[in-house]
Write a structure and sequence with these properties.
single chain, globular, 425 residues, alpha/beta, eight-stranded mixed sheet, 10 helices
């Protein structure tokens, strides 16, 4: 008999160390019906027991990683080919399981209103499972950004909301359904109105691709902004008299009830290890690791696409074709976690929480994602002491086994034809 109150089977994960309450402790993990459960209630209230036991071999169990900025991967670009977006989402969602990602925000860069109208309705929030990681909502990066800090974004498609405010935003995107995050530059007129309205509609406003000074950034936070897109990259440089957006990490002009989080691409290319250490030591609780990965993630060096922009990948560095301008990364989340830990010399707990708890806090979804607390979704990963991913679970079910599974990629031939193949991780 499974339980006096439930006939659903209970799985006990034993011989493991789990990340809970900011510590890795030796404790069993109990799962039923896709949720983490309190074993005391099972024992004493329900008179229940485990129906299945899994010996974890002394591994670390962490919440699944959450990537809030990923432009594509494995040959897929979320900002182009609207009629292929659904298939592309499935392929990316399935393959990132191998890197410990159980939830993500597909990211669409600066595009035309027509492209947004086609692509946004195709990307819907969806729970994960054997088919792949959960889609938490879209991250729209642009087009309301600074031309001077455009990075790889096409300059001819960049817009401002200065004249028409929130109406310009809606005219551009057509809908905000399934949108989780919008990156914008806050230095334009009407920023307060736009940020407040987006926040009221449940969208996280992130500051990025911007020349904003600290005062403008603080005002944006006071109106509801709570995230910074890839800190240090595509923004004004830190200056001791005006630290710009970077200054938000230690600002004393942020409302007491407002938290500020910041994304970091810890791929060893976008951010010098010293800059990683400065950011983390200034505001460790706000660090959110992101990959900012583009279509070339998982593919060999060569020419690839990021929206309408051609990108060359050479020696793990992705740049706008013919320039030295960085254009996304080819990093995977597990690589970012390991590099972040090594570069900052932070604790294992801090490294893991930067890819789990903090993104969940930023998105306000800790009631179901980003922790191993009771009653949250049983999305978790098995790690060795070097933080290599062995197994990935979603809703308590094994969805990735490093000893068995392969990943699929799409690579274009010289004739621009798609070639699908599978390879070992």
């Amino acid at each position: 008999m499974t339980s006096t109150t439930s006939k659903l089977p209970v799985t006990k994960f034993k011989n493991c160390r789990i990340l809970v309450n900011h510590k890795i402790i030796r404790e069993d993990l109990w799962v039923r019906d896709g949720k983490i459960i309190n074993p005391e209630k099972l024992f004493y209230s329900e008179k229940g027991h485990a129906d299945k036991e899994v010996d974890c071999g002394n591994c670390i169990i962490s919440p699944g990683y959450i990537d809030t900025q990923i432009n594509g991967g494995f040959g897929v670009d979320f900002s182009s080919d609207a009629h292929k977006v659904k298939d592309g989402l499935l392929l990316v969602a399935r393959n990132i399981l191998s890197h410990g990602v159980t939830s993500y925000c597909p990211t669409v860069i600066t595009s035309t209103p027509e492209t947004y109208k086609e692509i946004i309705p195709e990307i819907k929030k969806q729970e994960g499972g054997p088919h792949g990681a959960s889609v938490l909502g879209i991250h729209l990066e642009g087009p309301f950004i600074s031309e001077e800090k455009k990075g790889a974004h096409p300059i001819d498609l960049i817009k401002t909301y200065e004249d028409n405010g929130f109406k310009e935003v809606m005219d551009t995107y057509s809908t905000l359904e399934n949108v989780a995050i919008i990156t914008l530059a806050p230095e334009f007129g009407n920023a307060d109105v736009v940020i407040e309205e987006l926040t009221r509609k449940g969208v996280v406003v992130s500051l990025g691709h911007s020349e904003a000074n600290l005062e403008e950034a603080e005002e944006a936070v006071q109106h509801g902004a709570r995230f910074i897109t890839h800190l240090f990259n595509a923004m004004g440089p830190f200056h001791h008299r005006d630290p710009g957006i970077v200054g938000l990490l230690t600002s004393d002009n942020i409302p007491s009830d407002q938290e500020i989080f910041y994304g970091m691409i810890a791929d060893g290319i976008h951010t010098n290890p010293a800059a990683l250490r400065i950011a983390h030591r200034s505001h460790p609780d706000g660090m959110v690791l992101v990959t900012d990965a583009m279509a070339a993630m998982g593919l060999p060096s060569g020419r690839h696409q990021l929206g309408s922009v051609a990108v060359d990948v050479v020696h793990r560095r992705a740049s706008v074709a013919g320039t030295t301008t960085l254009s996304g990364s080819i990093a995977t989340m597990d690589d970012c976690v390991r590099h972040f830990k090594e570069a900052t010399r932070c604790t294992t707990e801090q490294a893991l929480e930067a890819a789990t708890l903090h993104p969940a806090q930023m998105l306000r979804i800790t009631d179901r994602k980003g922790t191993l607390e009771y009653d949250t979704d049983a999305d978790f990963i098995f790690l060795d002491d070097d933080l290599n991913v062995s197994y990935t679970y979603i809703a308590g079910e094994l969805v990735w086994d490093n000893s068995k599974d392969k990943i699929e990629v799409i690579q274009r031939s010289e004739d621009d034809e798609e070639i699908e193949y599978a390879r070992d991780v």
